[in-house]
UniProtKB/TrEMBL annotation:
InterPro entries assigned to the protein according to its UniProt record, in alphabetical order: DExx_box_DNA_helicase_dom_sf (IPR013986), DNA_helicase_ATP-dep_UvrD (IPR005753), DNA_helicase_UvrD-like_C (IPR014017), DNA_helicase_UvrD/REP (IPR000212), P-loop_NTPase (IPR027417), UvrD-like_ATP-bd (IPR014016)
Family in the record: Belongs to the helicase family. UvrD subfamily.
EC class of the enzyme, as a word: isomerase
MF annotations from Gene Ontology: 3'-5' DNA helicase activity; ATP binding; ATP hydrolysis activity; DNA binding
The keyword Zinc is assigned to this record: no
Organism lineage string: Bacteria, Pseudomonadati, Pseudomonadota, Gammaproteobacteria, Alteromonadales
Record-listed ATP binding positions: 29-36
Keyword DNA-binding: yes
A GO cellular component annotation in the UniProt record: DNA helicase complex
Pfam families membership: PcrA_UvrD_tudor, UvrD-helicase, UvrD_C
GO biological process, one term: recombinational repair
Species assigned in the record: Pseudidiomarina sediminum
Designated name of the protein: DNA 3'-5' helicase
């Protein structure tokens, strides 16, 4: 019998899951076993074989990038458009619901999304207005408190406030919420909570979507929090409906957002809440080599309370995992850059390489080494394009343009560039706004007109108000790109950054131009944002929701840098895990709490299982991080890897380590003799026809495979295969 095309390239269990009759399903399986693939094929199957319209399907993914990929893959399988299908992150879908039903959700039509940076500033302002001592109360803590409560579905009035601390945080939450509502601002947690309340309290809206979405499919389910799960339940009739089906896909070993309220127990809860859930376990891994898989399996085996899964692969053993013990973080970064260069020289793509780290703070040194070696790279998360100062300035103008009540945007641009509105004037405006319970914009306008503000200050405020109103009128009929370009120029923002000197200022100007570019190329229909929005509102929502997955230089062949958290669900032929040291990974805080340590180990498992062909683990014995010099031991996770899977990179060059002049201290049994096999010596001066003169730093491998690292005076450090390097001794 010939196979249905959608079932080709699937194993028996995957096939059973994809072609199962309509029902609730749980696909529980380890990394790289094809869970996401099953989800994609299942969606295509539902449309093609069960004849469901894309209109009746909702798919939830963890990132916007994953959503775009999923839509692309389904369309490829189907050969037709799936535009009517709702697919996106929980936040993206919640946003879409709120836009469609803003009145029912008690939001202004042009409400804007507050990112976490803006949220923290806003909380800080609120705390100041409540006269709370900043030394005693931290805005960051308050933000955590508020978000955690929202993730649990709690409003201020639900909180008991049983002690002084909690009462104070409750008071901040309350005041913050009032300010957000007044300004038409919605933070990330609020998106979820408000969408939940909308579905819970409005039966017409709820029933509409229950009828619409016959199937809801959720990837990475192990990282859903309470409110997200409650959402899925509401939309699907809570397990009681016979016309709604939920498929969840996950891996308890990859749950890494417990610190943000995610609950692994949701997986169990699902099987209790929904009737006749069919559980499917996948065991074959298609991603990684045997070596990588057995190492990852050994590490995760140290956790208790696992649901328990065995993973195997038909793939070969592949290469061992390289372990590099660096002297310090600079040495680590240089080693990695050198390895990437030789990978690239062998004709491999840079996009196939990922550098994963525990903390965003680690990226700077890595970036420097890559810059020095002229290796293009791209960072996911952390330094998002839309988070850069100048881009946020521009976005704030745009936000204020569509919503004058947006206090956060008002604060950001009122005196950027400087227009003579000083701190004192602003204080008066803030006080006025608070006393009259009106937005800052209205307060500024009223106070200037009532002559509470006088002279230069009043004129400056009125000029600003006029500027915004004129911008709105003048650009109303422009295309999005032209509108944004005009705002950036007429607001004085562009001139301000052009007047600044230096490389940084140049980059800022380029980023502003890139923003206009991004607007020109923006297709709101590709971004799972509601079609009815104005292009500008759609773009602003996209900028707030997108998490740095697309950056300006999207199509360039570049190495990818990201935290271990943001690597979830992805795969790369070559993966570097950096900074695998006690105190950094596992993190210091997790060492004090056993639950957290298990979560760090799952994070390690996630990182290792991203690698397809080759995994390299590095750690530094000495590291300057968070402004402190620290001495570290190799992480316990390294000790949990079977020794036969590891290859200790034999030689560590100390010569390049910035803090020690000593050369030739070796690791793991490497010797001068072994080095001599290459015919070169550590520290020797050599000449290369193309790269010029340099110093021998390091070597690796043996026989025909042996390679040496040379620090060239002009072009920096490079790894060369000894057999082909054709070096002259100087
Ligand atoms: P993770 O837990 O990391 O999210 P996953 O279980 O979602 O992993 P996928 O990303 O779906 O795994 O699949 C891993 C890789 O294996 C992908 O490259 C996928 O295309 C491939 N793959 C999955 N199933 C098969 C199969 N039956 N035959 C060939 N390749 C497969
Ligand atoms: Mg997946």
């Amino acid at each position: 019998m010939t196979q249905h095309p959608l079932l080709e390239q699937l194993n028996d269990k995957q096939r059973a899951a994809v072609s199962a009759p309509e029902r609730h399903m749980l696909v529980l399986a380890g990394a790289g076993s094809g869970k996401t693939r099953v989800l994609v094929h299942r969606i295509a199957w539902l449309m093609q074989e069960v004849q469901l319209s894309p209109y009746s399907i909702m798919a939830v993914t963890f990132t916007n990038k994953a959503a775009a990929e999923m839509r692309g893959r389904v369309e490829e399988l189907m050969g037709s458009s799936t535009r009517a299908m709702w697919i996106g992150t929980f936040h993206g879908l919640a946003h879409r619901l709120l836009r469609a039903h803003y009145l029912d959700a008690k939001l202004p039509q042009n409400f804007q999304i507050l990112d976490s940076d803006d949220q923290q500033r806003m909380i800080k302002r609120i705390m100041r207005s409540l006269n709370l001592d900043e030394k005693r109360w931290s805005p960051k803590q308050a933000m955590w408190f508020i978000n955690a409560k929202k993730d649990e579905g709690l409003r201020p009035h639900h909180i008991d406030g049983y002690d002084f601390n909690e009462r104070t945080y409750k008071e901040i939450y309350d005041a913050y919420q009032v300010a957000c509502d007044r300004a038409g601002l919605v933070d990330f947690a609020e998106l979820l909570l408000r969408a939940h309340e909308l579905l819970r309290d409005n039966s017409i809206v709820r029933e509409h979507y229950q009828r619409r979405f016959r199937h809801i499919l959720v990837d990475e389910f192990q990282d859903t929090n309470a409110i997200q799960y409650a959402w899925v339940k509401l939309l699907s009739g809570g397990g009681e409906s016979t016309d709604n089906f939920v498929t969840i896909v996950g891996d308890d070993d990859q749950s890494i957002y417990g610190w943000r309220g995610a609950k692994i127990e949701n997986i169990h809860q699902f099987t209790r809440d929904f009737p006749n859930v069919e559980t499917i376990r996948l065991e074959q891994n298609y991603r990684s080599t045997n070596t990588i898989l057995s190492a990852a399996n050994s590490v995760i085996a140290n956790n208790s309370d696992r649901l328990g899964k065995e993973l195997w692969t038909e793939g070969g053993d592949g290469e061992p995992i390289d372990l590099y013990a660096a002297y310090n973080e600079m040495d680590e970064a240089r080693y990695i850059a050198g390895q990437i260069e030789s990978w690239h020289e062998q004709g491999n793509a840079l996009t196939d390489v990922a550098l994963l780290y525990r903390s965003n703070a680690q990226s700077r040194v890595l970036e420097e080494a890559l810059l020095h070696a002229r290796i293009p790279y791209r960072i996911y998360g952390g330094l998002r394009f839309f988070d850069r100062q100048e881009v946020k300035d521009a976005l704030s103008y745009l936000r204020l343009l569509v919503n004058r009540n947006d206090d956060a945007a008002f604060e950001r641009v009122i005196n950027t560039p400087t227009r003579g509105i000083g701190a004192r004037t602003l204080d008066i405006v803030r006080d006025g706004a608070r006393q009259r319970s009106i937005p800052l914009w209205d307060a500024a306008k009223q106070l200037a007109n009532e002559k509470v503000l006088t002279g230069r200050a009043a004129n400056a405020v009125l000029a600003f108000i006029d500027l915004m109103d004129t911008l709105e009128d003048d650009t109303a009929d422009f295309s999005l790109g032209r509108q944004v370009d005009t705002v950036i120029k007429n607001s004085g923002l562009m001139a301000m950054y052009q007047a600044e000197k230096g490389e940084k200022a140049e980059t800022r100007v380029e980023n502003l131009k890139e923003l206009v570019n991004a607007c020109d190329n923006f297709d709101q229909f590709d971004n799972a944002v509601n079609e009815e929005l104005t292009p500008l509102n759609a773009f602003l929502a996209h900028a707030a929701l997108e998490s740095g997955e697309e950056q300006a230089d999207e199509h360039q062949d570049a190495v990818q840098l990201m935290t271990l958290h943001s690597a979830k669900g992805l795969e790369f032929p070559l993966v570097f895990m950096c900074g695998v040291e006690e105190g950094l990974f596992p993190s210091q805080q997790s060492l004090d709490e056993s639950g957290r340590l298990a979560e760090e180990r799952r994070l390690c498992y996630v990182g290792m299982t991203r690698a397809m062909q080759k995994l390299v683990i590095t750690y530094a014995e000495q590291r300057r991080i968070y402004g402190k010099e620290m001495l570290h031991r190799a992480s316990r996770f390294i000790a949990e890897i079977p020794p036969e899977n590891l290859h200790h990179v034999r030689m560590v060059s100390r010569s390049q380590a910035d803090t020690t002049p000593a050369m030739g201290r070796f690791h793991s049994g490497a010797s001068h003799e072994a080095f001599a096999e290459t015919g070169y010596q550590l520290g020797q001066r050599v000449r290369h026809t193309k790269f010029g003169e340099g110093t021998v730093l390091n070597y690796e491998g043996s026989g025909a495979q042996s390679r040496i690292q040379i620090n060239f005076d002009d072009v920096g450090s490079k790894w060369l295969v000894v057999a082909y390097a054709r070096l002259d001794r100087c």
